[in-house]
Amino acid sequence: MSRREVKSIVIIGGGTAGWLTAGILASRLRTRVLQKELTITLCESPNIPTVGVGEGTWPTMPSTLSSMGISETEFIRECDVSFKQGSKFVNWGSDKQQNYYYHPFEVPIGSLEGLLPEYWIHNTNQGSLSQLFTTQEQLCEHNIAPKAITHAEYAKAANYGYHLNAGKFAGFLQKHCVNKLGVQHVLSEVTDVNLSVSGDIQSVVLSEKGELSGDLFVDCTGFQSLLLGQTLGVKFKSVKHLLFADTALATQVQYPTANHAIKPYTQSTAQEAGWIWDIGLPSRRGVGHVFSSKYTDLTSAQDKLLKYIQETGGDDKSLEIRKINFEAGHREKFWHKNCVAVGLSAGFLEPLEASALVLVELSAMMIADQLPPTHGVMHIAQQRFNRTFHYRWGGLLIS
Ligand SMILES: Cc1cc2nc3c(=O)[nH]c(=O)nc-3n(C[C@H](O)[C@H](O)[C@H](O)COP(=O)(O)OP(=O)(O)OC[C@H]3O[C@@H](n4cnc5c(N)ncnc54)[C@H](O)[C@@H]3O)c2cc1C
Fold it and tell me: What is the number of structural domains in the chain?
């Protein structure tokens, strides 16, 4: 059993997954980083763009950012942030009178005591779960924020996550990680990967700056899964037979007036072959149509998106629309040898429940908490991690 210590973590990829992972690891392992017992290095390509979407978080994000020592005020100012109090699902049912329901972030009153389900089952005609058991639907319907300007950072009157500008968020995290948490930053493209005789990753070859070696490698290279998928050959397990969506058309819509109301929830409106997300940031809306290419064509999907934008008061002229292809699924293993995948390189289901970033948060926390002291015991952390994340991805699939 190898007694070689785990003293360097190398993260490849500087999207939201890479920088969130770097920040969570560096803050949780701060003492070791400060005492120079452990180095955390993030290497990202200056040429390969990030996916550039992913604007809605779960309510786990405030405590994640707080634990990294981030000022909520700075984050809100720099990342074009608004509050998200849940999702409003519009036109998903057949009831024409009540054509929407909410998934609020506030825990419904009585649910922790187990009182709620039985009462509600016998009283469904009186309203939806969120109408009867939380006040959050009313806050959302009236565009009221979950906290006042006088609240302390991260304090709240109602539970919330965030809507944010994904590009600005990665840049903001980079600044915090490098300036405050001691993360080393390398701007270079990985062109090759060197393996040891045991099959572990020994080092990555960089386009400009030689080689970067490490004890543990975190693959945050996005859909291409450069280390875990391409290099170590861990297969992708498709779930497209369960989740049919495989394409997104994403765009940004300007508000008609400067002081237009900002919706404090994500609106998800059902369409014939998918659904449209509508996220209100302070400076613009992020709108996108997620659909299954098996059940509609690109032109019809784009027409539906433009019609939605027009009907919701947006200007549908001269929009820049990006097409993103994906396949729902995840790697058969998330941690193999000395490499663990986090973010899109681990997998992606589809964005209906905006569950990708919370998996990044949870993955990074578990890597930090279970970080093996030596290579010889890495298989223990690996088994625990794989068991936990098979359970989590499976849970998201059936929820
Ligand atoms: C349509 C859509 C909507 C989404 N909406 C949400 C949402 O609302 N909420 C949510 O939580 N998630 C959402 N997601 C998921 C979310 O966008 C991602 O989980 C998140 O952005 C993290 O991406 P990433 O960092 O894994 O990958 P990317 O952003 O693709 O970053 C990959 C990084 O790897 C680097 N890289 C690649 N190859 C190399 C190389 N050879 N050498 C060096 N560096 C390399 C790139 O330069 C880049 O920095 C959505 C995804 C899609 C497709």
Answer: 3
Instruction: Respond yes or no: is residue 84 known to be catalytic.
Output: yes
- Let me know whether 63 and 177 are in one domain: yes
Determine the residue type at 264: P
Distance of alpha carbon 141 from alpha carbon 155, whole angstroms: 22
41 DSSP β-pair partners: 10, 184
329-331 vs 347-348, strand pairing mode:
antiparallel
Shortest CA distance to 367 belongs to which of 110, 20, 113? 20
- The residue whose two tokens read 């002229």 is 317
Q: Is residue 123 situated within a structural domain?
A: yes
Whether 10 lines ligand 1, by a CB cut-off of 6 Å, is no
Host H or E run for residue 303: helix 298-311
CB contact at 8 A, 355 and 12: no
For 239-284, the pLDDT digits (tens) are 999 999 999 999 999 999 988 999 999 999 999 999 999 999 999 9
The response to whether residue 161 sits with its C-beta less than 6 Å from ligand 1 reads no
Residues 174 and 63 in one domain: yes
Number of H helices, E strands in the chain: 11, 21
Angle of CA points 249, 253, 256, to nearest 5°? 155
**Which CATH number do you get for residue 34?**
3.50.50.60
Distance, CA of 79 to CA of 72 (rounded, Å)? 10
The values of phi and psi at residue 105, to 5°, are -80, -20
Residue 158 lies in a domain: no
Say how many C-beta atoms besides its own lie within 10 A of residue 215's C-beta.
Answer: 22
- 357 CA to middle of ligand 1, Å? 10
Q: Are residues 185 and 56 in the same domain?
A: yes
pLDDT, tens digit, 9 for 90 and up, residues 56-112: 999 999 999 999 999 999 999 999 999 999 999 999 987 766 799 999 999 888 777
Domain co-membership, 34 together with 174: yes
Ligand 1 binding pocket includes 17 (Cβ within 6 Å): yes
CB 87 within 8 A of CB 268: yes
Residue 168 in tokens: 């600005």
Å from CA of 51 to ligand 1 middle: 4
pTM: 0.96
In-domain check, residue 3: no
Domain carrying residue 69: 8-78+164-239+329-398
